[in-house]
Amino acid sequence: MCLCVWWSLVLHSDDYTVLESGETSAQTIDKFVEYGAEFEKHVQNLVINRYLPLDIVEDKDFRAVCYSLNAKHKAITKRTLADNISKAAAATRVQLKVLLQDEYVATTGDKWSSRANHSYLGVTVHWINGAWQLCSVPLGCEVHVDHVFSSDPLAGDGLIGDERAGGAASGLVEAMKVAQVAIKKMNNKNKKEAKSGATAILKQFRAAWAQYDIPETHVVATVTDTEATMNLMGSNMKEAANVDWIGCADHRVELASGWITIFFVYCCILFQIVYEHLTHHLYTQHRQSYG
Questions:
Q1: Is residue 164 part of a domain?
Q2: Interval 9-41: pLDDT, tens
Q3: Whether 161 and 206 share a structural domain
């Protein structure tokens, strides 16, 4: 029993004081019992590893679990947890900078939208260390706001309701002219947005490299999907940063398989049409021959 107490005090030497008489201060031990030396760290790891919301630490059921383990438990707040995570993130960035020193790396990026229609770009770095182990670490996931396509091809293009109604009322020809103008303006708008989006994505890649002190000369290649904006970004990346861009092979296969499927269905339909035509032709000749 004495050995266990001694070992506990050694492990947590910062959490107690020794009086002149040689006795341990009971107040400091109570403080250790109340706060728990590793509690906040374990809660932080739980929230990060399980992608839990920060306000879980203020949930009454979560606090009930904590109090059941230690009635003197001091509840951690959402603000404290956020501060702890920020400090841990800063320390991790410093460690990652050390790991990436003098390394030649490749990066991957993926752009996606949330349910709230907010666009994000995630960047991950990959490299092979001295032990020939493949390492991958996310560099960040930042909001991407410069590339938002309009869901309405006629929105904001100068074709107001009166013009639409007038076009429809003047007949099919006028309506087709309105549609052609709308499509042309939409295509021009999308091209401008794609160019703007590609420039913004390239800036985000370069900012991620700079944040971790990765020289652009040490970035061997960057891999993304083959969406139109990413294709344009890859071309700009080669020109501006002299970094090779590689389109995702899986994405290319997926696109190719889609076209192959469409082609196969088209051939089946065409074969069916030809077969029915020949069958009808032969049947007609047969009736004329034996009619």
A1: yes
A2: 334 444 444 444 444 444 444 444 455 558 888
A3: yes
CA distance 197 to 109: 14
Q: Is residue 95 part of a domain?
A: no
Flag whether 10 is in a domain: yes
Beta bridge mates, 221: 106, 244
81: left (phi over 0), alpha (psi -120 to 50) or beta: alpha
Q: Which residue has the tokens 């020289």?
A: 215
Backbone angles phi, psi at 127, to 5 degrees: -160, 165
Top-confidence residue, 254 or 95: 95
Q: What percentage of the chain carries pLDDT values higher than 70? A: 69
- Identify which of 252, 199, 194 has the alpha carbon closest to the alpha carbon of residue 223: 252
Model confidence, pTM: 0.61
Please answer whether residues 29 and 16 qualify as being in contact, where contact means their C-beta atoms are separated by less than 8 angstroms. yes
Domain that holds residue 62: 2-86
Residues 228 and 115 in one domain: yes
Q: How far apart are the C-alpha atoms of 266 and 171, rounded to whole Å?
A: 34
Number of domain units in the chain: 2
pLDDT of residue 27: 46
Where does the chain show beta strands of DSSP type E? 105-113, 119-128, 134-143, 219-224, 244-247
Distances 166 to 122, 159, 178, 230, 270 between C-alpha atoms, Å: 46, 11, 10, 39, 41
CB atoms within 10 A of CB 229: 22
- Residue 175, token pair as written in the block: 């309506």
The CA distance from 190 to 185, in Å, is: 8
